[in-house]
Amino acid sequence: AQSVTQLDSQVPVFEEAPVELRCNYSSSVSVYLFWYVQYPNQGLQLLLKYLSGSTLVESINGFEAEFNKSQTSFHLRKPSVHISDTAEYFCAVSRNDYKLSFGAGTTVTVRA
Amino acid sequence: ETGVTQSPTHLIKTRGQQVTLRCSSQSGHNTVSWYQQALGQGPQFIFQYYREEENGRGNFPPRFSGLQFPNYSSELNVNALELDDSALYLCASSLGGVREAFFGQGTRLTVV
Q1: CB contact under 8 A, A94 and B98
Q2: For position B96, what pLDDT does the model report?
Q3: Residue B38 main-chain phi, psi, to 5 deg
């Protein structure tokens, strides 16, 4: 069984500062890795995903995540955040392209 | 806009009642998965339907049941509602696996 641990439940950050959200997973087999974002009262939006190939994946809005197999981690980073990045972020894993197993989420609050 | 629509967006039910939630999948998608997201937690996998057949189930009791129709839309039914069933219910549609899954906006169920 897979489990996902998001190491920070809340991350306050000032606008234009960098942010890192940490995600570790446990699995004995290869997995697909995802980061989703959830704005208040909305569903989940896919931010980025790692399926195979380059271990560094990027999103169109400046986020990036690096897959580290030896540390079983998939941390999410953004070099400069905006107020609009305030949201809940979920790390998720999937084995065999089947169901998604989510972490508990990290609340990012960006302050001016 | 993902093309996955859920209805209703909100509803309030009384303990012991039954509820049906609906999900219209994105055009061309033959797989629908349902997730329960309790307040302050990550989504939990309920079950998945592929071409009208249940294709796997999470750790939820039998009073959680579902259907998928020939047009691949889906319903989630919950009988004998309990207070702990209060949550955001999310459906995700995909063409096969979760690598290309898209989530709807969710249905917020409150059980009183």
Answers
A1: yes
A2: 76
A3: -75, 160
- A30 confidence band (pLDDT: 50, 70, 90): confident
In the prediction, which pLDDT does B44 show?
97
Q: Distance between CA atoms of A3 and A92, rounded to whole angstroms?
A: 9
- Give residue A95's pLDDT band: very low, low, confident or very high (50, 70, 90): confident
* B108 to chain A, closest Cα gap in Å: 9
Instruction: Identify from A51, A93, A95, A99 which residue to disrupt to test chain B contact, counting B C-beta atoms within 10 A and taking the largest count.
Output: A99
d(C-alpha A99, C-alpha A42), whole Å: 21
Distance, in Å, from the CA atom of B31 to the CA atom of A45, rounded to the nearest integer, reads: 18
Bridge partners for A45 per DSSP: A37
**Least confidently predicted of A50-54, A76-80, B40-44:** A50-54
- Angstrom distance (rounded) from CA B100 to CA B97: 7
CA nearest to B91, candidates B68, B61, B60, B62: B68
